[in-house]
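FAQ: What does the model actually see?

It sees only this:
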Amino acid sequence: MVTGRILEAEGQKQAQVLKAEGFAVALEKIFASASLIDQKTMTLQYFETLKSVGMGASTKFIFPMEFTSMMSDFVKGRDK
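And it is asked to produce this:
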């Protein structure tokens, strides 16, 4: 009975390690993809998100500080 619990605990430990490793790989892929995105693409993503939020019943919007600088660069046509 004790041996069964030990084996079960070891199995759970290995499952958690595998989950963590998979999560780390996923984060690396996300980071690699995100590093390829330029300023204009990010601004367009913000616009799409705002459009989605605007369709909801919410009447308050929160803009990250980066949004104003991104908007400025987008309107002026500059790439960073």
